[in-house]
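Thread amino acids onto this structure.
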């Protein structure tokens, strides 16, 4: 709980005991989803759930809904820079999360600004393709992402297709995902969470693989047959960043983020005819998530 005592008013009036609450601050550097299900909107929803004050720096504006993306407009580079600068100067940012960065120049700019703030944990969600299949990272930006941004991460959170794109090879089994997570962790010197939602989609359990370069864990939860999965990746990385902003240890933060996404999938709401969206769960059920160290 973040509560501090504030001084009472002075003067000819009676002193009054006052209390003010303080909250840890997290920054999301990502794109906007006009449909509210993913991107900055999902990040702010996750930050709020965990009692973290959310700040943002928009990199792109998308025209989309859960069924697809119909337009993308990149934010000018100087505006991206000024947003980040304004937040870092004005707030005590305790964790940073990156999502959709869209282009190599934006990645270069963000990487340059993060390189001088190495004491702040950074969650990199290497957003490449939307759930609908729309490309959210230009082809020529993938190499820049790998060379400039990933080495600055505290933890990176690729889904299966993103991990395959970074590795340049397929991951068709849990054993292969373990090898891939280890290879990524050692290549970039960061902790890696390869999200397992795309692996064995008909299975009863969704397993994420975590590697810090030496140790390997599996984080498993019951697979939820949800009406939509739009925004799960953003929600996971934002929840992880929120927990790090609160000062939680990395594996505990991963545990909570997995529980948050599992609960969100089970809490989908109808927001139109045939249209559904994730919603934050009423509570975090950590018992639904099993964390097991494999090696």
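Threaded sequence (295 positions):
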């Amino acid at each position: 709980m973040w509560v501090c005592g504030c001084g009472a008013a002075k003067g000819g009036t009676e002193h009054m005991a006052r209390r003010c609450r303080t909250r840890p601050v997290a920054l999301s550097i990502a794109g906007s989803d006009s449909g509210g299900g993913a991107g900055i909107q999902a990040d702010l929803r996750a930050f709020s759930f965990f009692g973290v004050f959310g700040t943002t720096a928009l990199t792109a504006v998308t025209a989309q809904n859960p069924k697809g993306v119909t337009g993308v407009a990149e934010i000018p580079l100087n505006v991206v820079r000024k947003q980040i600068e304004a937040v870092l100067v004005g707030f005590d940012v305790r964790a940073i999360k990156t999502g959709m960065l869209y282009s190599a120049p934006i990645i270069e700019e963000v990487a340059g600004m993060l390189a001088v703030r190495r004491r702040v944990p950074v969650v990199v969600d290497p957003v490449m393709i939307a759930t609908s299949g729309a490309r959210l990272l230009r082809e020529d930006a993938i190499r820049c992402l790998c060379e400039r941004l990933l080495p600055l991460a505290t933890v990176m959170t690729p889904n299966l297709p993103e991990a395959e794109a970074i590795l340049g090879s397929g991951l068709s089994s849990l054993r292969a995902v373990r090898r891939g997570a280890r290879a990524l962790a050692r290549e970039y010197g960061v902790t890696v969470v390869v999200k397992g939602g795309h692996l064995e989609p008909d299975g009863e359990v969704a397993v994420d693989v975590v590697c810090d370069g030496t140790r390997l864990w599996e984080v498993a939860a019951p697979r939820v047959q949800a009406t939509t999965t739009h925004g799960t990746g953003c929600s996971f990385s934002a929840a992880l960043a929120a927990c790090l902003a609160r000062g939680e240890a990395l594996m505990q933060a991963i545990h909570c983020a997995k529980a948050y996404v599992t609960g969100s999938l089970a809490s989908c709401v109808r927001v139109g005819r045939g249209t559904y969206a994730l919603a934050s769960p009423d509570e975090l059920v950590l018992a639904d998530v099993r964390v097991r160290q494999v090696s």
